[in-house]
Write a structure and sequence with these properties.
With 171 residues, this protein is α+β, with helices and mostly antiparallel strands. It has helices at 3-24, 84-87, and strands at residues 41-44, 56-65, 68-77, 91-103, 106-114, 130-140, 144-149, 155-163. It has an 8-stranded antiparallel β-barrel.
Length: 171
Amino acid sequence: MSKPQLGLRFCYILLFTLSILQLACSPRPNIQGKGEDFMQGVWNEDSIAFSNKLSNYTQHHFKFTCDSVYIDMVTHSKVNFYEDSCYNNGIWKEYAKGVYAVKGDTLFIGATFTHANYKQKISGCYRIGRYDKNFLIKKKSADSLFLESLSDQREIKLTLKEKITCVQKEL
């Protein structure tokens, strides 16, 4: 074969390969994920077992909408871990916003600490940065969800306060 024929053959092979790749790969839609149907809603941790005997504990409020999660945490502490101006008589609130996924019996949350308006928090009292937590889903029903933190084995017993229907938004 002559050099022009080899070049032409190479061009045909390259064009064919690129065509196959273009058909095989398609961009993901630029839309929010659906999340888990059973998680959709507002969930409250109404009480903490033996809270009067604990030196510190945190009550959780979760809002799962599509694949997003909004977390409000109220911490009660008998021990001051922060500056006196932040201690607030041992009761303070923290907030986080992010995404979640459920794989098998595990809930994975990847979030960022925020202000109360869910805008990113980069300084101030309490925690800043990432809120990455994994929970074992011990039990679930239409109106209750029992989680166990995989980092400290504390149980979180949540009660459904409001069901939410996922309406996916563009990213």
